Amino acid sequence: MTTTLQQLPREIASGLLSINAVALRPNEPFTWTSGMKSPIYCDNRLTMSYPEIRELIAEGFATVIREQFPDCEAVAGIATGGIPHAAWVAQKLNLPMLYVRDKAKGHGKTNQIEGHFKPGQKVVLIEDLISTGGSSLKAAVAVREAGCEVQGVVAIFTYQFPHAAAAFEQEGIPLATLSNYSALIEVAAEKGIVQSSDVALLQSWRENPQAFGV
């Protein structure tokens, strides 16, 4: 399978919609755990069960790493959603794989990072979804504090919140994603999943999520 970076956002968005990994309800918003109202719900864990979609994602990750992080020496999955994708990508690139917990284990060797790594190793982290970016950055900082060089974080999808992009920039960690909220809305409108009259409402959520549905 040959995948180009230009094709990825729409191809991945279409794939996620086809398996209901993302659902859009602009007029009946979901309520997140935080209490925030959202017109979108994303569960990229579903991609594990669809070989064609997970292959598209794996090849997309591999393409991004080859083109944007060619010096990568290890791939690290961020628990839990990024772990299976990191395994498939590491296999494609013939690179070592690691995974990063949200915190160190409370028993045994008390590891937060699993797998063999060495100081100075160039690592790219794999994530399934970027919302605020907090958990992804926490994992990236843990890898950096362990002595590795974090080249960047690559995720399947991002809501494109401006404050998430700013957080990565402030930490000095590059972020790349295979698809994004804008591409998803575009593809969903073309497929008739959402009405064209709902597009402006959907776009307003990304710009000011706290005010949506209030």
Terminal Cα separation, in Å?
Answer: 45 Å
The helix fraction, in percent, is 25-40%
Structural class, please?
alpha/beta
Assembly of the depicted chains: single chain
User: What's the overall geometry?
Assistant: globular
Mean pLDDT: 94
N-to-C SSE series?
HEEEEHEHEEEHEHEHH
The number of helical elements comes to 7
Number of strands: 10
Rg for CA atoms: 17 Å
Strand order of the largest sheet: 7-6-5-8-9-10
CATH topology: Rossmann fold
Q: Tell me the β content.
A: 15-25%
Number of domains: 1
Largest sheet: 6 strands, mixed
Please identify the top-level CATH class.
Answer: Alpha Beta
The CATH architecture category equals 3-Layer(aba) Sandwich
Low-confidence runs (pLDDT<50, min 5 residues)? none
Quick recap:
Homodimer. The chain is α/β, with parallel strands linked by helices. It has one domain (7-211): Rossmann fold.
